[in-house]
# Entry
Amino acid sequence: MATQFNVPTKEEVNENNQAIFAQLEKGVGFVPNLYATYAHSETALGDYLALQNRKSTLSAKEREVINLVVSQVNECQYCLAAHTALGKMNGFTDDQILELRGGEASFNEKLDALAKFVKNITINRSKPDAEVVENLFAAGYNKANVIDINMVIGDKIISNFIHGTTQIPVDFPVAPELETATV
# Structure
């Protein structure tokens, strides 16, 4: 039988993680299961939140594009559910979110270049095609943006892999399936 991961409660984590749980409850209204799962480690939750909340050259909308595309490529149901909700909070419509998950954004030229780059580099395991890199720069992104894009890709891969390993329950509304395979 495979090892099962539980979602730790506040009482089951160390004092540092208990303080982070309290901050999450205050700011988000609850401790998302995936964040709680990071707390199996004494330091991973704080480290992850520092990475996720670091200063960036990217807007919140651009970060959500990255989160949605990477989570779709990696087929992470938890992150797709969470970032569908966050995408809506950042002003994307349901149809736009589905399109973004497919790696395109016909509604915005700059976000389209970003989505295509992110899908390509994720599928190609860190080695994007030259054309998508050139299109990213032609759309207005710069070298600093490319570094920040890769930081967000890495951030999301960490979460995708943790959920893939732990299979903890999704505590966000389930993201709709894409009608056609786009990955």
In short: The longest helix spans residues 143-166. The chain has a mean pLDDT of 96. DSSP finds nine helices and no strands in the chain. Residues 38 and 45 are 5 Å apart (CA to CA).
